[in-house]
């Protein structure tokens, strides 16, 4: 053996396959140990994981060196040099891992602090994955806040809408109980009025229930092949008495009777019914409401056109909001709703993968439902 312990080159080359095989075997063992350790530590700080990565890298390198030493290819001072270099490399790796883990930990703390301080605003300059989490969180919080605001507004309006008729009913019931009213005509009128209010309140509670199911994503649709013409015919049959009572001319044009959609006939009929009832309510007597069904742009299309005189431009984007009512509809009347009808219609149409919209057109407005054909 040459002075200084350096093995002759010929020997080193000859030993290469063995050294590689031993190093690979030991490296595999080290890697398995590292993976096992990562599994055990998976809920610990990223800093600990980075330390494991560095230890594994150093240990795998050491395994190779051990293989070389075992074959006596190097020994003496050279062995010490090689071991020292590996040790220094390991320390440098650990140092960098330490700095990196401090940074990752600091940035995740920054994210956690931001989350704890409402209203949440995504901190900027985070590592890519953390930034993505922060941005997603910001969107989710904003959505939550908007929903919360809408819910609060809904509760305020609904409790107002419930309280007004309840106060009236209590007054009438007390008057009947105390015998304050006794002439048969007034007694009959009070009874009729109480029954009407009860029906209106029940409808409102049903609407609220439906809406909360839609918002909870719990709307159960039993979808089947439905022809739009049948849907229109059923809807017209249901609202005919209301149109007649108001003197509104209700007509239906189902151009292509066979337009098929995959829909829950009950739910979709309810959505269309809400549109038609609104149209009739906002159209003066002797004017027309027209229902159309057909295919447009490769989509099944249902539309309801009325003669309401147009919806104010600033209200157009808001009519589908929960509890939104136009100014004229704010004061509760016998046939007034709670501003839930269009929100329900929108929820049902979207659950069918469709879209609903409204435009001002001619003497009034036109609501349109578009659904995928089947
Ligand atoms: N066909 C229509 N013509 C004019 N305005 C309408 C029509 N449909 C809806 N609107 C407006 O949209 C608002 C919300 O409608 P909706 O959600 O059905 O609630 P509601 O009927 O209980 O008021 C109505 O108060 C009204 O201002
Ligand atoms: Mg309505």
Automatic annotation (TrEMBL):
Keywords: Kinase, Membrane, Phosphoprotein, Transferase, Transmembrane, Transmembrane helix, Two-component regulatory system. One of its GO terms (biological process) is cellular response to phosphate starvation. Its main location: membrane. It comes from the Bacteria. PROSITE patterns: HIS_KIN (PS50109). It is found in: Cell membrane. The chain crosses the membrane at residues 20-39, 46-69, 81-100. InterPro entries: BphY/WalK/GraS-like, HATPase_C_sf, HATPase_dom, His_kinase_dom, HisK_dim/P_dom, HisK_dim/P_sf, Sig_transdc_His_kin-like_C. It catalyses: ATP + protein L-histidine = ADP + protein N-phospho-L-histidine. One of its GO terms (cellular component) is plasma membrane. This is Sensor-like histidine kinase SenX3. It comes from Nonomuraea wenchangensis. The lineage of its organism: Bacteria, Bacillati, Actinomycetota, Actinomycetes, Streptosporangiales.
């Amino acid at each position: 053996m040459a002075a200084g312990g350096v093995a002759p080159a010929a020997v080193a080359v000859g030993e290469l396959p063995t050294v590689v095989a031993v190093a690979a075997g030991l490296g595999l063992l080290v890697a398995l140990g590292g993976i096992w350790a990562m599994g055990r530590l998976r809920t610990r700080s990223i800093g600990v994981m980075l330390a494991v990565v560095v230890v594994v890298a150093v240990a795998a390198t050491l395994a190779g060196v051990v293989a070389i030493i075992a074959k006596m290819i190097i020994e003496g001072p050279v062995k010490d040099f090689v071991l020292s270099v590996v040790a220094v490399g390991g320390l440098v790796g650990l140092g960098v891992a330490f700095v990196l883990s401090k940074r990752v930990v600091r940035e995740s703390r920054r994210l956690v602090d931001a989350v704890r301080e409402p209203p949440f605003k995504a901190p900027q300059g985070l590592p890519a994955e953390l930034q993505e989490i922060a941005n997603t969180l910001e969107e989710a919080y904003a959505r939550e806040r908007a929903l919360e605001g809408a819910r609060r507004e809904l509760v305020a309006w609904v409790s107002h809408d419930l309280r007004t008729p309840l106060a009236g009913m209590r007054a009438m019931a007390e008057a009947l109980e105390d015998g304050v009213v006794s002439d048969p005509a007034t007694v009959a009128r009070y009874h009729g009025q109480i029954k009407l209010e009860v029906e209106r309140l029940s409808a409102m509670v049903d609407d609220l229930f439906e809406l909360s199911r839609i918002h909870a994503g719990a709307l159960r649709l039993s979808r089947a092949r439905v022809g739009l013409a049948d849907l229109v015919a059923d809807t017209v049959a249901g609202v005919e008495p209301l149109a007649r009572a108001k003197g509104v001319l209700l007509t239906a044009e189902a151009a292509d009777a066979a337009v098929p959609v995959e829909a829950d006939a009950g739910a979709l009929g309810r959505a269309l019914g809400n549109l038609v009832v609104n149209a009739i309510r906002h159209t003066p007597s002797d004017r027309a409401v027209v229902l159309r069904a057909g295919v447009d742009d490769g989509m099944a299309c249902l539309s309801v056109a009325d003669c309401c005189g147009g919806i104010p431009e600033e209200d157009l984007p808001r009519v589908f909001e929960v509890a939104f009512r136009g100014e004229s509809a704010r004061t509760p009347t016998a046939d007034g709703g709670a501003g839930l009808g269009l929100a329900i219609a929108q929820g049902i149409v979207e659950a069918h993968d469709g879209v609903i919209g409204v435009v001002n057109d001619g003497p009034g407005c036109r609501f349109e439902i578009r659904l995928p054909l089947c």
